[in-house]
Predict the structure of FAD-dependent oxidoreductase.
Amino acid sequence: MDSSARGPVNGGISFWYAHDGLPDRRPPLPGDADADVVIVGGGYTGLWTAYYLKKADPSLRVTVLERSFCGYGASGRNGGWLYNGIAGRDRYAKLHGHEAAVRLQRAMNATVDEVIAVAAAEGIDADVHRGGVLEVARTPAQLARLKAFHAHELSYGEHDRELYDATETAARIRVADAVGASWTPHGARVHPVKLVKGLAAAVEALGVTIHESTPVTEIRPRHAVTPYGTVRAPYVLRCTEGFTADLKGQRRTWLPMNSSMIATEPLTDEQWAAIGWEDRATLGDMAHAYMYAQRTADGRIALGGRGVPYRFGSRTDNDGRTQEATIEALREVLTAFFPALAGARVEHAWSGVLGVPRDWCATVTLDRATGLGWAGGYVGSGVATTNLAARTLRDLVLTDTPTDLTTLPWVHHKVRRWEPEPLRWLAVHTLYATYRTADHREESLRTPGTSRLATAANRIAGRH
Ligand SMILES: Cc1cc2nc3c(=O)[nH]c(=O)nc-3n(C[C@H](O)[C@H](O)[C@H](O)COP(=O)(O)OP(=O)(O)OC[C@H]3O[C@@H](n4cnc5c(N)ncnc54)[C@H](O)[C@@H]3O)c2cc1C
């Protein structure tokens, strides 16, 4: 069969693994064991935490327990936007004051630099390209939101952010119907899997023990319980993000929300000439059901958005398989943005899970009395935030004296749990259907006001 007639590979965890290869698995936990710190989950959060703990104190015995393999979750499937966004900043400003949130934003800006610097120091080649982040508006309502968003970000001290009109936007990237854009230098493109694989290898080289194919079924003070034995440690850190609902007692803690992506075949020089995008900034938009994309190092477009956002009962995963309707919807976004790609083949489609707290605010916490800690609830902004969370967990474990990081406003934040089913399922599906309707209304009305539907949906969802 002509390969161009074939549909995309669906699942296989992600395109990034198809591209870079699945890793060999490390051996599972052989039986009961002791450690100083046990980390549950081998994504960016768990691995960065192990990295910084071991760097700070090489004598610490740090063990990572990973249900599948390091990078199986969102850390091996994401859009590769290493950027300075953090879920909940505006709420933290309301709760702790504007200055506290400005400190958090500055810490996030510095985190982008930190990840790039550590990757370079550790010899991790993650296809990093520092082109910043460009967010475009394609309707009058999106443009009004873009301008408000731009001014809002400036108020958090991002004075190097730039606002572009339609012509200036087109000089950077030719997105159909784009009427303006906001650009920040605090972002870079990465290859998510190269980053997570390199990080796992660096952590292991420091002397951290990693056991894969080892599911933790229960976390108790000083115990991480698995079918193969229990690891006892004064500190047990939960770094399971979108999979947290599978742990005993955690079903309603963070809602596992799906995000789906597609990757095109490598584009031709003519196609790239039509699009531009020479600075390789990561690309997003201002729609309510927003999209995100990157130009990959090998000349493809990897593009994502919310597909089927949430499965009943907090079910999480089937190795990244995604629904045909979602693939089609993402393909439509691709060609709406870049009509020149109408004939381009989509090679791969996949999905992954994010962790969404009831108030959409990321958190990092350690209770020194029980030794239980966790970090997550990053919603869609975890590639950089996980690194800040990890350095904060390090400080929380190693000292009870407040540090610059442990006094940031997202530390020790408490939030109520999600509603039981079927309310949870109904709420999320209604929310995303509403966002899609709001986007359609804004496109057809072409007036600058944000659809009141979306504003209402945000309020009901607890997002603002
Ligand atoms: C499709 C998609 C696109 C995204 N794009 C971006 C982006 O461009 N930029 C951005 O900033 N963020 C993005 N994100 C979010 C970002 O990828 C995540 O916030 C981040 O990777 C979270 O890392 P983590 O280590 O906390 O969680 P994960 O990477 O999900 O790791 C959790 C790990 O825990 C393991 N685990 C789970 N339960 C257990 C258990 N019981 N026992 C042992 N191990 C367990 C899992 O197997 C997994 O490996 C995206 C997410 C998705 C899904």
Notes: The radius of gyration is 21 Å.
